[in-house]
Specification:
Blueprint (H helix, E strand, L loop, with lengths): L38 H19 L2 E3 L6 E5 L2 E3 L3 E5 L3 E5 L8 E4 L10 E5 L9 E6 L1 E10 L2 E11 H4 L2 E8 L5 E13 L8 E5 L5 E5 L7 E10 L7 E7 L3 E3 L5 E2 L4 E2 L11 H6 L8 E11 L2 E2 L3 E3 L8 E4 L20 E6 L4 E8 L5 E3 L2 E8 L5 E7 L6 H15 L11 E2 L23 H12 L3 E3 L12 H10 L10 E4 L3 E5 L4 H22 L6 H15 L1 E2 L1 H5 L19 H7 L1 E2 L1 H14 L4 E8 L4 E9 L2 E5 L1 H4 L14 E3 L10 E3 L16
Parallel strand pairs: 1-5, 3-12, 4-12, 29-31, 33-34
Antiparallel strand pairs: 2-3, 5-8, 6-11, 7-8, 9-10, 11-12, 13-14, 14-17, 15-16, 15-20, 18-19, 20-21, 20-22, 23-24, 24-25, 25-27, 26-27, 27-28, 30-32, 31-32, 35-36, 35-39, 36-37, 37-38
Helix pairs in contact: 5-6, 7-10, 8-11, 10-11
Length: about 700
Amino acid sequence: MTQRRFPWLAVLGSLGLVVVLVVGLVVVLAQGGDDDRPDGERRSGSQADALRDRVLNEGRTELPTTAAVENAVPGYDYTEALTGVGVDADLTVPADHDATDQIEVYADAALTKPVPALVLPDPTSPSSEPLLAVKPVQVRRAHITRQNGQASATVADLGTYWNLNPEVYVVQQLNPDGSKRARPLVTEVSFVAETPSPAQVAATVSAQGDALLEWSPVEGATEYAVVLQQRRGSNLDGTVRVIGRTTETTWSSEETAICRTVSCTQNEALRLTTVDASTMASNPTLVGEKIDARLGVVAVVDRKPSALAAVALTGLETLPVRSDRKWDGGADIWNRGLASLPSRFLFASVDGSTRATGAAIDRADVRRKGRWWEVPLQGQGTRLLETVRIPVDAVKDIDAEVAAFNARAQRDYPKAGLLRSSIVIDVGDPRKPGPELPKPTYPVFGSNDLSTFIAEQLVAGATDIDLSAFDDQPGLPDVQDAWREAVYQNPYALAYFDRYTYDGSVLHVQPAYPAAEKQRRQQRIADRAKAIVRSEITAGMSVADKVRALNRYLVDQGEYDDAAIAGSPGKYRSDIPARLRYAWEPDGILLSGTGVCMSYAYAFDVLAEEAGIESVVVTGDLADGGAHAWNKVRIGNSWRAVDVTWNDPRGRWTSPRGDRYLMIRDAQFTGNALRSEDDDWMSDGFLRDYPTR
């Protein structure tokens, strides 16, 4: 299925994982003379000292050491943010100690993506006021191109890691006197470069499954570098790659496609995992390692690079990489006729999921070699090919059988049930905010103040939400992160199909439903939830008993809406006809008794709230293809997963008693239920609060 300026594909990591390079440096400053020097010498010395001080103080910014907000994110204090810091600047902090490993630098608000930095005692500071300096690491990377079978390499100067991470979070574990802080102190630092970044970068997927980047031009730019930052665990080797250099304002990953005799790969450079989900499903002993990634564009003017203009990876997770060699389900498709070929073409995508598309055969590419037809199967919407051999004797009329296969594949093409959407950042169309609406009477969830406020206004029906009160408040997620949480965790918002723009202070909502319809449906959902809980929940039930009862009610009364899936022409929310939107909303299952995974998850969340159960909606991708939604509930001090959709015995899944995926640990999703969570459903700084144990 389906932070401040540019969001990351979240990939989850462990808090505190960072590599800090410590470099020892000794500088001896010779200071001569005494107070009896002639006036001319004293003036000369003063000028030299002033010049020295100016040189030393330029390009450095001192970090605050006191909190502006305490416990803004649970367990962390935040200082005022620092803005306008140069990309070559050192960050200094008063420190009467040399514990350089107690300062950490991260690229994300969740403090999971470490940024390489040099942390060392500042030799220029006086002994009475010692400093530690956090110095940026220079970044130069080779870009390899291939033409006519020949490879050549050029070196791109990308500036420093401050260029590549124009917003970082510096964490101080100690007070300046060396004592341990009650809570780590976080400072958000925003960097600027002399060369401006492209104002906008957009990413789309081409008709053949390639990533297409487009960006606004930068005046005087001689070239642009397309940069990919990747990280596996704590491994910082090769985290920065230049995957494209161009003088144009567009770039396509088509140049990364590789086709061999019988198969093709594409988008290999953009992979987000070390092991594909289909491989893990067939070999449960394997554990796939996720690759944290950030993609963006650096402009170069007079050999000076800009800060990275990042692009959201949302929507690019589905990019195809290779055909799944288990796509035939183990059937013997070689040496048989075209009628034996499955119409579904499975491929591994950049996030490791196995996704489905229709297979297709281009008759012009079918070749006869001796007693065999060599038939290249292509995944529709990809560059992927998988060639199979069919005996000539098994084919009566190759033209007719190819046509029949293509017709069958087109008819059988499957579609996912959870659809993605993206926010549009529009600074060129400012509009006035609407008045703040009163807090709604329906339940509202928010892990932080910004998400809670957006959720309250969405549930209340606001269309122009003024967020200026949250500007520069430390510890808050960015707007995209916050509104995603507000949509996924608040079924009463009925905002799954809403669209958004943001002009820097006002979030403009383009609601999918008129206000009167929304209010009427909210009331019907609330009334239905109360009635169901009254009938299914009795006094004295434990939380686990309540979860079982609500799950049983939904699997008995709900039915997966295959017709809604079949009637949806694409993978984006905007493609869903208005008449079918109910299948993705809470009232699909609650009121009509039919819906897809999103409706099951929303419905369970509504009932859980009414029954006094802590519940969240979770989204991610299934190993055997397709995005998905399910829930987690708090049982005692632990969270457990609940997948009502997959518990439905009448569905296409394997839960005959309706409770196979009920209050289980994440690791218990195995086989074709193997899945990975994405980071859309909860603000990034709070994702770590929901692991099952």
